[in-house]
């Protein structure tokens, strides 16, 4: 995957399909917006990216399951806010950077979060959060100026949504399905026991009535 999934038009990106365990063979399948590409190597090179390059990329090696999607976004703008990840697990690192078109130097940079100023630097710097929390979730954008322009005009990047998820959320996600499933199973078991008990009771009463009928007709054993 690229270090940044938001890039400028005209830049080059390489997507790499990795596996935890080495596999025999080197066949790789790539999909772009659910359409299979002709590339069968473990790396997908995108050169001179255009807006058409934006989309969802997936891969798989040797007929295994498809990977999680990588969402690539290509921009044509003066400023671009990039993030190391748009979805972060609580406790993991998060890096934000404000880039200028063609890597031109950006000055008097202001980072915003949810519409409020967050950080200011005369010389551009990244925002580095070593251990993200849910409080870091929000909408970010950056603002800055270029030193080669004589005007005092400032530029603003497109906003970027960052979501920080708690590690327990994945467990709770499964519990949301597990608890109703257990309730259904217990209900089914209880219903089965009830039906079984009712059937046994009906059977015993039937036997008892039959025996009473026989005693009335034939009092002798």
Automatic annotation (TrEMBL):
Any one GO biological process: immunoglobulin mediated immune response
A Pfam family it matches: Ig_2
Record bears the keyword Disulfide bond: yes
Coiled-coil parts of chain: none
InterPro entries the UniProt entry points to: Ig-like_dom, Ig-like_dom_sf, Ig-like_fold, Ig_Fc_receptor, Ig_sub, Ig_sub2, Immunoglobulin_dom
Keyword Transmembrane: yes
Organism superkingdom: Eukaryota
Gene Ontology cellular component list: external side of plasma membrane
Domain Ig-like: 1-76, 77-157
Transmembrane region(s): 173-195
GO MF annotations in UniProt: high-affinity IgE receptor activity; IgE binding
The entry's keywords: Disulfide bond, Immunoglobulin domain, Membrane, Signal, Transmembrane, Transmembrane helix
Name of protein: Fc epsilon receptor Ia
Organism: Equus asinus (Donkey)
């Amino acid at each position: 995957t690229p270090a940044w999934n938001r890039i400028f038009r005209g830049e080059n990106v390489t997507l790499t399909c990795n596996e935890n365990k080495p596999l025999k063979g080197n066949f790789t399948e790539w999909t772009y917006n659910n359409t299979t590409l002709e590339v069968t190597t473990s790396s997908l090179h995108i050169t001179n990216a255009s807006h058409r390059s934006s989309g969802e990329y997936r891969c798989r090696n040797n007929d295994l399951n498809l990977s999680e999607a990588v969402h690539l976004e290509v921009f044509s703008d003066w400023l671009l806010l990039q993030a190391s990840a748009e979805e972060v697990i609580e406790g993991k690192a998060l890096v934000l950077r404000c880039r200028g078109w063609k890597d031109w130097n950006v000055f008097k940079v202001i980072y915003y979060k949810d519409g409020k100023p967050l950080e200011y630097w005369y010389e551009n710097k990244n925002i580095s959060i070593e251990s993200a929390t849910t409080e870091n979730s929000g909408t970010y954008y950056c603002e800055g100026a270029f030193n080669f322009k004589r005007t005092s005009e400032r530029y603003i990047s497109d906003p970027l949504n960052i979501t920080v998820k708690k590690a327990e959320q994945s467990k709770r996600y499964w519990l949301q399905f597990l608890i109703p499933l257990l309730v259904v199973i217990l209900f089914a078991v209880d219903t089965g026991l009830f039906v079984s008990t009712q059937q046994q009771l009906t059977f015993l009463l039937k036997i008892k009535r039959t025996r009473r009928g026989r005693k009335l007709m034939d009092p002798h054993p």
